[in-house]
Fold this sequence. Notes:
- By secondary structure, the protein is mainly α.
- The chain has two domains: 11-92, no CATH class; 101-188, no CATH class.
- It contains seven helices and two strands.
- The chain has a two-stranded antiparallel sheet.
- The radius of gyration is 21 Å and the shape is elongated.
- The relative contact order is 0.11.
Amino acid sequence: MSERKSIKTTISQAVDYWSKRIDECGLSVDWAEAHTHCWRCGCERNLERCHIIPDSQGGEDAPRNIVLLCKRCHADGPNVTDPEIMWDWIKAYSVPFYDTFWSILGMKEYQFIYKTSYAKDLADILAAANLEADDQVLGEIKEIIHEEMGKAGVHFGHPYLNTATMAGINRIVLKTLAEKYNVEFPTKREETLPTTPWWIQC
Length: 202
């Protein structure tokens, strides 16, 4: 098996090339921070130079064939020979604020598992406890999140909390709040999201 050649295209060359061709409005990153933030998730990470058309499929080592992704997003990226697919994928996941991407995916996972949104469950708990989402309550929620994130584990070889773990932390936060304020949880409600799994919804 031949050893893979190291990529010669630099991070700066990739940013310089794409910043003149792609509008940052559709991305999770501003071009000013594109040297340090992943172009898919927008988190500040060590960046990997990722081939748009894979090296194994004849993709060249040139700025037009390189995007900058964190290790986690690089592993998730499409491995196909149509360069449009990479940009479709990156743009589809754009978020408006840095460092929110994985939390948002955790909320989406929560919604998929529990057939209701985290925000709706939180609103129900606060309404039942006759509370508002003021600074004190939001501070309590942050403390619980911080504590639970410290207790949560990671899978071997993955130095991050995956989306299922983030969804679980969200659920624990709500359970803890409900218990603190002596509120029944989960709240019974008639409306639910569709029960058809997302992978077969059209």
